[in-house]
Structure prediction request, 486 residues.
Amino acid sequence: MSLRGFIFCCLFAISIAQNETNNKLFPEDFLFGAATSAYQVEGAWNEDGKGENIWDRYTHTHPEIVVNNDNGDVACDSYHKYKEDVAMLKELGVDFYRFSLSWSRILPTGFVNKINLPGVTYYKNLIKELKDNGIEPLTTIFHWDLPQPLQDLGGWKSEFVVEAYVEYARLCFELFGDDVKYWLTFNEPKQICPIVSGILSPGIGEYICGHHILKAHARAWHIYDQEFRATQNGKVSITIDSNWQEPASDSDEDIAAAERSLQFTYGWYANAIYNSDYPEIMKTRIAERSLAEGFNRSRLPSFTDEEISYISGTFDFMGTNMYTSYLVEAMDEVPIGDPNYNYDLGVKTYQPDDWEACTAPWLRLTPWGIRKFLNWLKETYNNPAIIITENGVVDDGSTLEDDQRVRYYRDYLSNVRSAIEDGVNVIGYTAWSLMDNFEWQYGYTQKYGLFHVDFDDINRTRTPKTSVAYYKKVVETHCLVDTCEE
Ligand code: BGC
Prediction:
C-alpha cells in the first residue's frame, strides 16, 4: 500500500471511530445560536435612505459575477420580515442570534456626517424583538458590505477607511450597546482582503488590507474598553476563519506545511490579537521571498512595537468560523518572481474524493477536523474562551428532508463536545445559517438554512427543514443523542 493509501485508511479508521456520537451533556451554560448577515438576508437595498454598498454596486454593474445574475436586492426580505425571523429563532429555542449591521443602512455615505434614522430604527426594533423573546443579540459590525463611497476612496487599502470604520464602530456601541453584549468587529478578514485588493496587487495589496483591518479591529476594541465597557459591560472580539489543515503524510515537510498553512490563514489575523505580532513563519518567509524578488523590504508591512502591544490582547473571547478540512503537502518548487500569497505560503491542498461531498465544491464533511482545530486553537492561543461563530453545510434545496445537514450538525457537535472533554474552552456554537439566503457568488443556488426560504414567492415564505427539529432538540436538551450522560 502506498503511503498516501495508508494515511487515507488511517483517517478513514479515525472517522469511523469518531462516528459514535458523543453522549455527554453540553455544559449547562453552553450557548447555542444561529447566524445570518445583513447583505445576505435583509434586501431593501435602497429603501428608507440606505446608501449603496460594494455588493449593490458589483451585482448591479456586473450581474454575471453571480450565478443566475442574482443579487441581494430583496434576498430574504428580512428588513420587512424580521419578526418572522425572530419567531423562527424562538422556535429553535436558541440563546443568541448572530446578525450583522449594514454600514450603509446606518451611514449612507459611510461617514458619521449623515446618520440614517430609519436604518437605526430597524436595528433597534430587531434587537428589541430579540430581547422581548429572550434571545441575546451577537452583533457583527462588518460582514463584507463596505459602503461604496469608501470603496471609491481605496477601500481597505486606505488608512482613511480605518478612520471611517472606527467612527462607525463607536456609533454602533453608542446606539446599540445598552442591549448588545456580544460584538464582533469583523467577519473573516481573510476573505475580505483578496476580494478587495488581490486582483490589483496580489501578494501586496492583501497584506496592506489585512494590516489595516487588524488596526481597525484593535481601535474598536480599545474604544469599547475605554468608553463603553464600564457602563455596557459587554464583550468584543473578531471572527477569524480557517479550514482544518491536516498533514497529507507524516513527513516533516508535510507536517510543517500544514502548520504553516494554519499560520498563514488563521494566524495571519489571530497571532497579533491573541499572541503578538504576525506569526514568525509569515514574517520570515515573506521577507526572504520579497528580497529574492528584488524588493528592498518585506511585502508584509510591519507593526511598530507600540502597535504590537496595542493590538495584542484585544479580545474578550475568540470568534471562529470552521466548515471543513484539507490535506496539505509541501510544495516542492515555489516560483520566485510574481508576488503571490499562495507562493508565500507554498503548500498544495486538496480534499480526497472519498471524503463525503455536499453541494459546495470546497466543502467536504470532516467532523473530526473541528476537534483537531479546536485543540490547535487551545494550544496556539493559550486556551481562550471560544465561540464557534459559524459552522454548517450546503445543499441544493431540493428537499426539506435535509438529512445530510442533520448528520453534519450531529457529527460536528459531537466533536465539539469531545474537544470540551479535551480541555478546550468552547462556550458557544452558531449554526450557519438560520435560513437559506444569498450565498455571495453562488446566489440562491447554495442553501445553508435550517429554514427553507421560497425565493420565487413574493412573501419569501419560510418553512422548517428536518434539521430544525434536530437542532431544536439539541438546544433544549444539550444532548446530541436520545439520552445523555451527565
Ligand atoms: C461567511 C458567510 C457565508 C458562509 C458560507 C462564511 O465564510 O461568513 O457569509 O455565507 O461562509 O459560504
About this structure: Residues 43 and 74 are 4 Å apart (CA to CA). The pocket of beta-D-glucopyranose is lined by residues 37, 40, 187-188, 191, 241, 321, 390, 432, 439, 448 (CB under 6 Å). The chain is about 45% helix and 15% strand.
